[in-house]
């Protein structure tokens, strides 16, 4: 099995063709934190800024987007010239101690080469009483994905990439966080159709870049066969929102 490194600058060129901001995810984050126009928020691993912009518009807080990929940030800048964007790795954040009231990352932790160091540095830049929300999927939730049905190799790959929830809690504890609370949430059911097939064909999910060509092509064939047979594919994505507080 191939465990290739993902070129995010290359992925950025097609990322927005298959990925959009997720209002339901942003809404769930905002339910857990109290912010105002003076609050300073860090979006760690903001990518092309989809959720960064949604969060800015709905919270009215001062949101900064951070990503390691220049290509991703170029796309984010095309969408908004007013939201500050910073290119830097998540484990060496270019910010002062105690600078932010809130930090979040959405489907990012499995991309970080040094998640423990990144969480420790997020702890540093949060003020006392500040909150961190890590949106991710547990190994059980990965098994429940539609992609895991058609691309079973992707589930194995992602369970190696994604730290499970108890591991994330250990990272948080070691970094100095307290009051860790994982909250599972299931999104509204979505009927999958041509848009989902288009996303898969464009490898819009990062784990599809990490499986073998044979596994990928077989999965695409099986997915097309399911649609051609008239099977109705409906999926409710499950996520875990891991909350932690800096004392």
Describe this structure in words.
- The chain is α/β, with parallel strands linked by helices.
- It has a domain at 8-138 and 161-189 and 237-246: Rossmann fold, CATH 3.40.50.
- The protein contains eleven helices and nine strands.
- The strands form two sheets. The protein has a seven-stranded mixed beta sheet with strand order 3-2-1-4-5-9-6, with helices on both faces.
- Helix 5 links the parallel strand 4 (100-106) and strand 5 (126-136).
- The longest helix has 16 residues, at 213-228.
- It is globular.
- The model is unreliable at 1-19 (pLDDT under 50).
Task: Summarize, please.
With 247 residues, the chain is an alpha/beta fold.
CATH architecture of one domain, by name, is 3-Layer(aba) Sandwich
Poorly predicted residue ranges: 1-19
- Fraction of residues in β-strands: 15-25%
pLDDT averaged over residues? 91
What is the H level of CATH, i.e. the homologous superfamily of one domain?
Vaccinia Virus protein VP39
- Assign a percent range to the helix content: 40-55%
SSE run = HHEHEHEEHEHHHHEEHHEE
Which CATH C-level class of one domain is it?
Answer: Alpha Beta
Q: Kindly identify the CATH topology of one domain.
A: Rossmann fold
Oligomeric state as shown: single chain
Q: Compute the separation of the termini in Å.
A: 43 Å
